[in-house]
Amino acid sequence: MSKSFYITTPIYYPSGNFHIGHCYTTIIADAIARYKRLKGYDVCFQTGTDEHGQKIEDKAGKAGVSPKEYVDNIVSDAIDLWDSLHISYDKFLRTTDEIHIKTVQKIFTKLYKQGDIYKGEYKGLYCTPCESFWTSTQLVDGKCPDCNREVHEVSEEAYFLKLSKYQDRLVEYIESHPDFIQPESRKNEMINNFIKPGLEDLCVSRTSFRWGIPVPFDENHIVYVWLDALTNYITSLGYMSEDDSEFQKYWPANIQLVGKEIVRFHTIVWPIILMALDLELPKQVFGHGWLVINGEKISKSLGNYKDPREYIKKYGVDAVRYYVLREVSFGNDGTFSEEALITRTNADLANNLGNLVNRTLSMANKYFDGKICNKNIVEEYDTEFISMICNLSSIVDERVDSLHINDAMESIFELLRRANKYIDETSPWILAKDEARRDRLESVLYNLLEAIRVSATLLEAFMPDTSKEMFRQLQIEDKSIGYQEKLTYQVGTPTPIFERIEKD
Ligand code: ME8
Q1: What spacing in Å lies between the alpha carbon of 39 and ligand 1's midpoint?
Q2: Centre of ligand 1 from the C-alpha of residue 1, in Å
Q3: Which residues contact 147 (CB under 8 A, 6 or more apart)?
Q4: The overall pTM is greater than 0.90
Q5: Which of 2, 97, 238, 468: disulfide with 244, CB 3.0–4.6 Å?
């Protein structure tokens, strides 16, 4: 039986259209999910939408529609966006799904009955756009530390989750599981800035707005955002439902990807909910940086972005996927720039990858009518080149496992660059002039085809269309990873995979 692998993105707020920052997390999760499938894992890749809350209720009111109508529109647009990026999610959870609502109510009731949730009074400073409560010491210049907007004081009867009860257990867990919070710097930030100063119990219900899941035994209250949102990762798997086989199979998650501003909810509140439910914690929560434009976070509330589909239309889906996967060192902030996307597409995709396929297939057609076998004439440059082809998969494995996704991509492109250099070193056009060197010429072309085939196999995870197109032109179906000695190629006529983009 194959090993299971569960990876999640955050569930996004459908409070405005999605931008390239949301695509960033989702494309990375998709690449990891595809890669694990390629390696034989039984993968569950989940994304979804976080649809409740005051912000949505207010926006729907302004638009003159019900909250559900309001989110339905945005969610169907988001699904279209994910389709256009070839996001291969297995589950799309909406917090308005019946299964989610029922399970959140069961979880709330269970935690209340066992004393982990209690009723009290909430007095606090609330930022409506971010749906976050802050203590006065967390404010920056009296404003919300995340979005720099005004906060206002609220006081109401509310239910609370006893975070304080689990504080010591949480610190002990984090310290004894070094992989749980990654990268390392985020772990230190959580322990030193948030947990050790003391955890305050968390408000988990509200009475001041209606768009949410009713607390089943006290319907004046609706479940407040984080208990509703975080539990999505298990409600989708059928936790506490009649059929919890997927929960048994996939939980605990292998990787939960989240943006850096919500690491604290995922590494403090979420583990405590799980501990209270007596469940295992995810193996890893990875907090990534933001995509920024001109130094500012790309964000719905700042509105500083274009519809990502404009880039897809202009440059093609794989140019966008490649840029996002390759450009940013995962974990840090990275700049998104259309100009850099064009530069990368031209240099790496049109020149490096495109030229290699074009040159190799053209020569295979010109000298051998496209039919190439391995004649095993091994000469200078071959050993190093072939060992690079053989080692590629294990290098990519290691880099994907440590979430160095940009480096994983880079190692594939390094092989493609090396292959272009191998053409220059072996000079097939000179070999072609000498009848006695025909077997050597065929061996050279065979090695090049193997480099292309192995790269195309691994690229399925990162750039699925490109991988498919490479296989179509190679006219071969063998997707084994690693150098094969005895394949027979009958390649097609090359057509450009990436056109050079002229800058406006
Ligand atoms: O936080 N660059 O939803 P959200 C990179 N519903 N990532 C970005 C980004 C950018 N410019 N802008 C946003 C929520 N993101 C909650 C999550 S999970 C149980 C609930 C990322 O739509 C952001 O960091 O505001 C976060 O991880 C994700 O998009 C969803 O943000």
Answers
A1: 29
A2: 35
A3: 127, 129, 130, 301
A4: yes
A5: 238
